[in-house]
């Protein structure tokens, strides 16, 4: 019932924005020919009706038969909604001005009467403001969703065993197979990864959005990852089925077990609060994998005591932990001997600006470390911007990432 109320509220708000914006559109057409006016008005309302019809039909669409149709519907509606909402803000500012002017004109002492008609400038500004997010978000779906970027960092460690000097680490995170709509592009990203010839591969969680079945069509794609020293992975907050409804707890646990098996099928060594030892030329490096642990409301399945058991005294440790908030909350205060932590989770909010050393994203207001490399004393954290996407099926400015870290001994 709550879902029905939400849909009714959403559509009511959408129609209110629709009619509000239509007034500006109609005013802009006053000097146009009859055929232009009719064409624009018909197109305006046909697009709106299609968007609303899609939302009303959403729950009746079988996602197994029309796999990506639901995604297209929600994306189309969301982009239109955001564009019209932003345009309406400009119109609201103008209407507030008009209301104030009307009140001023009521006073008899006012010698000059001011116009209360809508500003042509503000109407044009509203339409431009609405068009910008629609164009940007559409481009983010068409181009940004699979515009994979290889990001490289060199990290120097005084205690890195000499046998691992120059170790090439590749990391990806937040695949979210349930959101994909272009398998060819996803395969192209893995080809880019393999072309880097990494020594070891790390995946830092969120293989799916909600259920293990989402990954089935992509298992053979990610199975192609090549790394001679091993492929290691951990679970992210979306991998536990916490955001989906289940008929029983047993069904949920079975789905988690199926997801574990999928990691095995891809030859990814899934670390569940435990660790592994890499050996090269008689020297060792410890790989720790902690289950999801996030500060605040996010799930806390991780157990660092179990994760580090047996390698407490190991001279060099790399930790895989999905949520970067784990670093400040537990790792740095309690495990100062963990040299490098790899995380993901934030996606960089899939929106922002990166130009040279300048970076901005709304993610920074939620996460202290939301992307790239961070250092505190002798400890490092790298936050991958994510390979996939969720919710909005695209990226604007913050592009999907394949991380290459070269570890050097100094």
Short description:
The chain has 410 residues and is α/β, with parallel strands linked by helices. It is built from nine helices and 14 strands. The protein folds into two domains: 2-142, no CATH class; 150-409, Metallo-dependent phosphatases (Purple Acid Phosphatase, chain A, domain 2).
Explained architecture:
There is one protein chain. By secondary structure, the chain is of the alpha/beta class. It has two domains: 2-142, no CATH class; 150-409, Purple Acid Phosphatase, chain A, domain 2, CATH 3.60.21.10. Helix content is 39%, strand content 17%. It has nine helices and 14 strands. It has a six-stranded mixed β-sheet with strand order 1-14-2-3-4-5, covered by helices on one side. A six-stranded mixed β-sheet has the order 6-7-8-9-13-12. Strand 3 (200-203), helix 6 (219-222) and strand 4 (231-233) form a beta-alpha-beta unit. Helix 1 (2-28) runs antiparallel to helix 2 and helix 1 packs across helix 4. The protein is elongated and about 90 Å long.
Strand line-up in the sheet with most strands: 1-14-2-3-4-5
Beta content comes to 15-25%
- The figure for the number of domains is 2
Just name the CATH architecture of the largest domain: 4-Layer Sandwich
Distance between the termini: 62 Å
Q: What's the number of helices? A: 9
Proportion of residues in helical segments: 25-40%
Structural class: alpha/beta
Taking all residues together, what is the mean pLDDT?
A: 92
Shape: elongated
User: What would CATH call the class of the largest domain?
Assistant: Alpha Beta
Described by its quaternary structure, the protein is single chain
Order of helices and strands: HHHHEEHEHEHEEEHEHEEEEEE
The radius of gyration over CA amounts to: 26 Å
User: Can you summarize the main beta sheet?
Assistant: 6 strands, mixed
